[in-house]
């Protein structure tokens, strides 16, 4: 079998789909993307496919090595994301060729179902100015309303961003606002629902150590990406400041980039299978994490192909914890975000769990007609620019 052709489809503001074709009529799908940098990743895919077209797609590791290490300059979010999408498509092809789901190729499933969580929003910012917050009352009402939507879908785990655009060392009022938002959600959902917080790397090391002890009594599942990834050498300062489990990894792109944070004592690793070298590299990250007693909760704020790739790894990973998704999954999900699948039922999660996927490859059937129609309407998306009160850049 040989790879004969490929196509890229820009189908959503943050979704880029890749179709890889073979001379046996078997098609694989992947999702190579960096949110806000889609056209650049697409260009990288075009170049890297020179290593793949005309070759045997069953030689996944050989092709991965060629793509990842075949150039003098290696790594980074763009190249690794391009490799990730191609890698997903190759695993999809292999599974379809052999008639088995990808998790079977990874050693078989170690669990019968995968727990998922849903997002309930963030502290509101009305303009480009990060300090121009909504009122506490408005945010709490919004967070409680969206919490109820997720609970009605059968989910038992929720995540949100309780603070946007923080200063390096912020005011007592802002700190109290963070606590009050989280406390309001905890009071609303009760103790039987898990809560996770995402800080998007907006805290300084000093702010993280100042705030996290305040949140301990709220019994969070984990706090995600409290500081920027470039401070991985000092992540132990954050970990040691609180008993709340710390998670990170959505902006780390290889097992070597995870080395320092795994040693720091984090509880949860969050590689993105569309950024960190695909299924091939993320299974190695999972194995490395297991040696440090660290769980996996793959990052996935994008589309259905990326999520299907995550789920295949989740089923086969002993140290898996919980899976992110933004597709509105739950009981009876057949909404707008499912339009690119012929059959959405493999993602059914009426009790907050997706049952073992058994179809070959990634376990989903992409509706190519719907993809082609949407690709004609695609547009670019960029990270919104935020500013502090003094006009300096604020982390989004």
TrEMBL record:
Pfam families: MR_MLE_C, MR_MLE_N. Residues 140-245 form the Mandelate racemase/muconate lactonizing enzyme C-terminal domain. Keywords: Lyase. Gene3D superfamilies: Enolase-like C-terminal domain, Enolase-like, N-terminal domain. One of its GO terms (molecular function) is lyase activity. Signal peptide: none annotated. One of its GO terms (biological process) is amino acid catabolic process. This is Unannotated protein. It comes from freshwater metagenome.
């Amino acid at each position: 079998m040989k790879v004969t052709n490929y196509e890229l489809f820009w189908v959503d503001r943050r979704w880029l789909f890749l179709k890889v074709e073979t001379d046996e009529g078997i098609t694989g799908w992947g999702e190579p993307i960096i949110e806000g940098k889609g056209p650049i990743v697409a260009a990288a895919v075009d170049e890297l496919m020179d290593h793949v077209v005309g070759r045997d797609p069953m030689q996944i590791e050989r092709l991965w090595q060629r793509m990842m290490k075949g150039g003098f300059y290696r790594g980074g979010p763009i190249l690794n994301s391009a490799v990730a999408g191609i890698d997903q498509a190759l695993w999809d092809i292999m599974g379809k060729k052999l008639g088995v789901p990808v998790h079977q190729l990874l050693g078989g499933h170690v669990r019968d179902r995968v727990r998922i969580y849903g997002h309930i929003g963030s502290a509101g910012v009305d303009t480009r100015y990060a300090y121009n917050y909504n009122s506490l009352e408005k945010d709490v009402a919004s967070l409680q309303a969206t919490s109820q939507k997720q609970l009605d879908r059968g989910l038992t785990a929720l995540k949100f961003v309780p603070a946007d655009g923080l200063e390096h060392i912020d005011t007592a009022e802002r700190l109290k606002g963070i606590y009050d938002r989280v406390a309001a959600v905890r009071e609303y959902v009760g103790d039987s629902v898990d809560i996770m917080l995402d800080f998007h790397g907006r805290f300084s090391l000093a702010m993280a150590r100042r705030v996290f002890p305040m949140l301990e009594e709220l019994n969070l599942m984990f706090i995600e990406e409290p500081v920027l990834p470039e401070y991985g050498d000092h992540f132990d300062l954050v970990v040691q400041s609180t008993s709340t489990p710390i998670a990170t990894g959505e902006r780390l792109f290889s097992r070597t980039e995870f080395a320092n944070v795994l040693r720091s004592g984090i509880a949860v690793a969050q590689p993105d299978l569309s950024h960190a070298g695909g299924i091939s590299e993320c299974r190695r990250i999972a194995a490395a994490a297991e040696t440090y007693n660290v769980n996996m909760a793959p990052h996935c704020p994008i589309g259905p192909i990326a999520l299907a790739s995550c789920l295949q790894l989740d089923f086969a990973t002993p140290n898996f914890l919980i899976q992110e998704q933004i597709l509105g999954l739950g009981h009876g999900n057949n909404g707008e975000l499912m339009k690119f699948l012929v059959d959405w039922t493999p993602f059914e999660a009426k009790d907050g769990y997706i049952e073992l996927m058994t179809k070959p490859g990634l376990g989903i059937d992409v509706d190519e007609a719907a993809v082609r129609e949407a690709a004609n309407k695609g547009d670019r998306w960029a990270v919104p620019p935020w500013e502090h009160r003094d006009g300096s850049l604020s982390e989004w």
